Amino acid sequence: MSNAGVSSGVSSVSRARHMSAGSFFGTIQGKREQCGAIFTDLRHTAPRKLPMHSHELAFFALLLDGLYAERYGRRQSQYGPFTLMFRPAGIPHQDEIGPRGVRLYEIEIRAAWQKRLADCSAALDTPRDDIGGGPLLWLAMKLFREVQSPSAVDDLAVEGLLAEMLSFAARASRHESRHVPGWLSRIQDKLMAEHCRRLTLDELAREAGVHPVHLSRIFRRSVGEGIGDHIHRLRVRTACERLLDPHASLAEVSFATGFADQSHFTRSFRRITGMTPALFRSVVLHAT
């Protein structure tokens, strides 16, 4: 039975459809190539399960709307709006589109970028996700805004953002194996689930079973930012999702996501995304 299962898995991978550069399942609403990357605005309007496939180029996938699931190897993951995935070239995977369809912004990376990274002893060989409003997501959103801008696109700005994304993804991959305590994942899960309510350091320390000062130090060392900054990123990512509703006021969104007031919300949103909430809503909704 074990051999049959392995054989079936190998057979499934061997039958995976190979997608050439710029090719995707779904409806392509727009595509452009610039600075060694291919940018594709992709839509699926109905739920469906896609065939097993792989891509010629490494790519980032920015999920702007809808629900999306992916299976590759033994891993199965689900994603909501304003999450980001990176996949190296050639990894067989199978996607499932959620009930309302999805909108994805795909950023494929030409081989020249891989060579530039190799020249500084870095590589893009590890799949990774940003589902918590981390730096990769906001770099991708800034790149989306730059490329989708109706005015002339600045090559230097696009190339700079691409370099930051690739450098961050490669650096994070190299540091992925760093030892972290077992309680850290519990704290991250709690923050992910409860970031819109008022949390205290003492409450988190009790959950972890460690001193608050130790918690703060290890969290920053392991995650790369303080707990307060991390919560703000999570709240802003949730706010982005709520801003997809054109009828939700900014005051309602700021209150629902745990900010003290609309002014605090706007300052935090601008600092993290580079845009005001109103401009963000305009960029995302008007590009649909």
Labels describing this entry:
disordered N terminus; two-stranded parallel sheet; Arc Repressor Mutant, subunit A; 46% helix; Jelly Rolls; alpha+beta
What does this protein structure show overall?
31% of the residues are buried. Residues 1-11 have low confidence and may be disordered. Helix 3 (135-148) packs antiparallel against helix 4 and helix 9 packs across helix 10 (262-273). The strands form two sheets. Strands 2, 3, 4, 6, 7, 8, 9 and 10 form an eight-stranded antiparallel β-sheet that branches. Strands 1-5 form a two-stranded parallel ribbon. 46% of the residues lie in helices and 24% in strands. The protein has helices at residues 2-14, 111-119, 135-148, 155-174, 183-194, 201-208, 212-223, 227-242, 250-256, 262-273, 277-286, and strands spanning 17-19, 27-34, 37-44, 48-49, 53-55, 58-72, 75-79, 83-87, 94-109, 128-130.
Approximate helicity band: 40-55%
Order of helices and strands: HEEEEEEEEEHEHHHHHHHHH
Termini separation (Å)?
49 Å
CATH topology annotation of the largest domain: Jelly Rolls
CATH top level class name of the largest domain: Mainly Beta
* Tally of distinct domains: 2
Any low-confidence stretches, pLDDT <50, length ≥5?
A: 1-11
What is the CATH H-level superfamily of the largest domain?
Jelly Rolls
Secondary-structure-based class equals alpha+beta
Radius of gyration: 20 Å
| Count of runs of 4 or more consecutive helical residues | 11
